[in-house]
Write a structure and sequence with these properties.
Strands 3-2-1-4-5-6-7 form a seven-stranded parallel β-sheet, sandwiched between helices. It has helices at residues 24-27, 66-77, 89-103, 117-131, 154-181, 202-222, 239-244, 264-275; strands at residues 57-61, 81-86, 107-111, 136-139, 185-190, 226-233, 286-289. It has a single domain, classed as Rossmann fold (3-Layer(aba) Sandwich), CATH 3.40.50. The chain is of the alpha/beta class and 309 residues long. The protein is built from eight helices and seven strands, in the order H-E-H-E-H-E-H-E-H-E-H-E-H-H-E.
Length: 309
Amino acid sequence: MAALRAAVPCCALGTRRTSRTRNPERATRNVERPKAMLKPPPAPIKVFRSDLLKDHTALITGAGTGLGRVIAQMLAEAGADLLLAARNVERLEQVAQEIRAATGRRVEAFFVNIRDRQAVEALAARAHELYGAVDILINNAGGQFPQPARDFTPKGWHAVIETNLTGTWNMTQVFGNQMLNGRGGSITNIIAVIGRGMPGIAHTAAARAGVLELTKTLAIEWGPRVRLNCVAPGPIQTEAFKQTYHPQIETLCEGIPIPRFGSCEEVAYATVFLASPAASWITGEVLFVAGGQQLYGRNQALFDEMFKR
């Protein structure tokens, strides 16, 4: 599906608009809405010491843009060497060069389609050849498109499930086996605010819930050798988010306890923490970085009037 790109973070809730998606502009043209009074996220700060992840190797999928890019940068700043994986190699190489220059860490970039099991196995073989072991895996790649569930096509449904659930499984099993056979490691899955329903993106709600239960199950099977956790971001204004949603979608943030968009850095802080020795007794957990959206407020990708009741 053209709308799915491996480097799109799940927290963006979607990729670019597709022919399957009802035009939010048309659907909301005559809808009166209050102006959102949203404060910007705080400025990024340095949280982790530069040798926290010394002698660690981290693999981040969907690392070419948005959240994946910021997570990769922060892991390198904390001392990890990196493998960056995505489907846009040109963009990924640019990110790799920028992180090398800024941190002095070793950074390699690889093309991979996480839905392709053979491609994932080839990546694992290459990673083992270059680095010996991957200690940290961040499953960030994913994608979806906003649309009422009754309008999903079989192709659209399977594309989202195969990327967000099966792709995550491919990476987790292949690299998890390497960790189990080696010195262990940590896997963090970037999901979304699930548990309350996600109108407008039912396919990704199903996939992300599957990843959460997979994470909990493997935390039991693979403990204590491999720790597995999830980070669940709320709405983050990445470029993909801006390309996908109507500008007035910001009004959907107003009802959450901390009524604003989050930043990629805020999600990255949580992700690096869970991958670090500071979280050595944490496994099978989901850490919401969502301003309390998991508790209260709107958690949907389309306006109410866009659903055909």
